[in-house]
Design a protein that fits this description.
Elements: H1 4-10, E1 11-18, H2 24-34, H3 58-63, E2 71-76, E3 79-84, H4 93-100, E4 105-111, H5 118-129, E5 134-139, H6 148-159, E6 162-165, E7 167-170, E8 178-181, E9 186-189, E10 203-205, H7 210-216, H8 220-233, H9 239-243, E11 247-252, H10 261-271, E12 278-279, E13 284-285, E14 293-301, E15 310-318, E16 320-322, E17 326-329, E18 334-337, E19 342-345, E20 348-351, E21 354-356, E22 360-364, E23 374-376, E24 387-389, E25 393-399, H11 405-417, E26 422-426, E27 433-436, H12 440-453, E28 457-461, E29 466-471, H13 475-484, E30 489-492, E31 497-501, H14 504-513, E32 518-520, E33 522-524
Parallel strand pairs: 1-3, 1-4, 4-5, 5-11, 6-11
Antiparallel strand pairs: 2-3, 7-8, 8-9, 9-10, 12-13, 14-15, 14-23, 15-22, 16-21, 17-18, 17-23, 19-20, 24-33, 25-27, 25-28, 26-27, 26-30, 29-31, 29-32, 30-31
The chain binds guanosine-5'-diphosphate.
Length: 525
């Protein structure tokens, strides 16, 4: 038997949020290096990298974008870190949002030359919904960067979170010589060309020391003045404020140079929350509860092209999973025996014997598991907050071969259960409409329908701007609404009534005309 309380204290489950190109992939491979998960940090995106196995989609390789995401577990010091990778491309943001429901904190990567970018702002909004604690790494200090004070201001003003610098960059670009830690009064000296190694930590004690003067050269006075100013003008790090999601500790460094990453990781394992309690419709579930529970936040197909399997990713919320245990699949009201869950050691899948709250396990899915499903050791619970977002882009599917209707329906059903697309069946005709949050999602759907279900189809534009899920307590009014708006109504993949609005104006007029109907922009799984 494992000691659950002791194991929980070690766990840190997080994801990285960033704008594309800020350095998420690069820092991921360095984190794995620090975790000794890989000896030499190869390229995560490269062919032989630890992700190579999940790089299943030719389209993905051709485009050099990572549309799949995976889970990596690595040890660091006496901690066990679970890193949930999220697709960087904005067309897959729904997937990212859902992954953010499964973590306890996030690392925000910011490109020092660019500052806060759009995607970061959006992801930050999602984190804010659950007050997720955020640790910040300002990256690429080995390149010409923006003024560090300005970057902190931007984080505070644009992201509306208090920034507490833990360390401070000493120069940038060619003049980048290291970082200064406000709390230890130690300079960590940057050495170039050590990106693929675990560099020695070369320290200079004291900003005012002779050694520091030598390192900083002609900039010494300017840098000391700036640090004095920053010390007075910024907030001290406050653990409670960080854990409440109101303050972010800020580290500077270069992921590519694997510098500043150690300090950031040390801060992370020290401060980041252990697995947190999770809400269900019934009650709050504490991680230390003896009985097992968890929810599915993601389903991924073709992790291994040879097996054509689909893996359902489960965040364990309480108790312990052990191999061969029985779980209740709450939605189906059925007990299932899970003999072969997988874990994700640094990108490699392997069988797990035991996993605890905070860990992610993968269940082989033969079509009975959906995003949002709750599994327990008997209790009927439903974890809250795994959203569907109303799509913004729509296409009508027309089959090239009408005899393939069955395959098409099966494919669409599976793809929508995985969250790869959303499907709508207008109630007035036999059309099939697919909806997506980003345009690239359609390409994935087309590719997979063709590749996995042998369905070739034409994806036509359709005059739908947005969708809203509709509910009404008053049965008579609901009938009237259905009658009057039939031409714009559809059922989604789960059979929920949906209004497909041809325009924003139409949507607001319809809402005005039917004040008793609730129009939702998100729907829980
Ligand atoms: P992602 O899109 O956020 O995953 O970003 P990547 O990790 O792929 O990085 C984007 C580009 O920036 C790549 O060419 C990296 O080599 C480069 N890069 C990442 N970190 C650094 C850094 O610290 N310094 C410099 N100079 N380049 C970096």
């Amino acid at each position: 038997m494992i000691n659950l309380t002791a194991e929980l204290a070690k766990r840190r489950t997080f994801a990285i949020i960033s704008h594309p190109d800020a350095g998420k992939t690069t820092v991921t491979e360095k984190l794995l290096l620090w975790g000794n998960a890989i000896q030499l940090a190869g390229s995560v995106k490269g062919k032989r990298g630890p992700h190579a196995k999940s790089d299943w989609m030719t389209m993905e390789q051709e485009r050099g974008i990572s549309v799949t995401s995976s889970v990596m577990q690595f040890p660091y010091k006496d901690r066990i870190v679970n890193l949930l990778d999220t697709p960087g491309h904005e067309d897959f943001s729904e997937d990212t949002y859902r992954t953010l429901t499964a973590v306890d904190s996030v690392l925000m990567m910011i490109d020092g030359a660019k500052g806060v970018e759009d995607r970061t702002i959006k992801l930050m909004e999602v984190c804010r919904l659950r007050d997720t604690p955020i640790l910040t790494f300002i990256n690429k200090m080995d390149r010409e960067s923006r003024d560090a004070v300005e970057l902190l201001d931007e984080i505070e003003n644009v992201l509306k979170i208090t920034a507490a610098p833990i360390n401070w960059p000493l120069g940038s670009g060619k003049e980048f010589v290291g970082v200064y830690n406000f709390y230890t009064d130690v300079i960590h000296v940057y050495q170039q060309g050590m990106g693929h190694t675990i560099p020695d930590d070369i320290q200079i004690k004291g900003l005012d020391s002779d050694e520091a003067t030598k390192l900083l050269g002609s900039y010494a006075q300017d840098i000391r003045d700036q640090i004095e100013f920053v010390r007075g003008a910024t907030h001290q790090f406050d653990l409670e404020e960080y854990l409440a999601g109101r303050m972010t500790p800020v580290f500077f460094g270069t992921a590519l140079g694997n510098f500043g990453v150690r300090e950031m990781l040390d801060g992370f394992v020290e401060w980041a929350p252990t697995p947190r309690a999770r809400a269900t419709h019934e009650r709050l579930v504490e991680p230390a509860e003896e009985k097992f529970s968890g929810f599915i936040f993601k389903i991924q197909a073709n992790m291994d092209p040879k097996h054509r399997d689909r893996i359902a990713f489960m965040r364990i919320c309480s108790g312990t999973y052990s191999q061969g245990m029985k779980m209740k699949h709450v939605r189906l009201g059925k007990d299932v025996k899970i003999a072969d869950a997988v874990t994700f050691m640094a990108g490699d899948r392997s069988a797990v014997d035991e996993a605890i709250a905070g860990d992610i396990i993968g269940l082989h899915n033969h079509g009975t598991i959906q995003i949002g499903d709750t599994f327990t050791e008997g209790e009927s619970l439903k974890f809250t907050g795994i959203p569907h977002f109303a799509p913004e882009l729509f296409r009508r599917i027309r089959l090239k071969d009408p005899l393939k209707m069955k395959q098409l329906q099966k494919g669409l059903q599976q793809l929508s259960e995985e969250g790869s697309t959303q499907v709508f069946f207008p109630i007035n005709n036999n059309d099939i409409v697919v909806g997506a949050v980003g345009v690239l999602q359609f390409e994935v759907v087309a590719y997979r329908l063709k590749d996995e279900y042998k369905v070739e189809a034409i994806y036509e534009p359709v005059s739908v701007t947005t969708a809203r899920w509709c509910e009404c307590d008053d049965a008579k009014k609901l009938e009237e609404f259905k009658r009057k708006c039939a031409e714009n109504l559809a059922l989604d993949g789960g059979g929920h009534l949906t209004y497909l609005a041809p325009s924003r104006v139409n949507l607001s007029l319809t809402q005005e005309r039917h004040p008793d109907v609730v129009f939702r922009a998100t729907r829980e799984h």
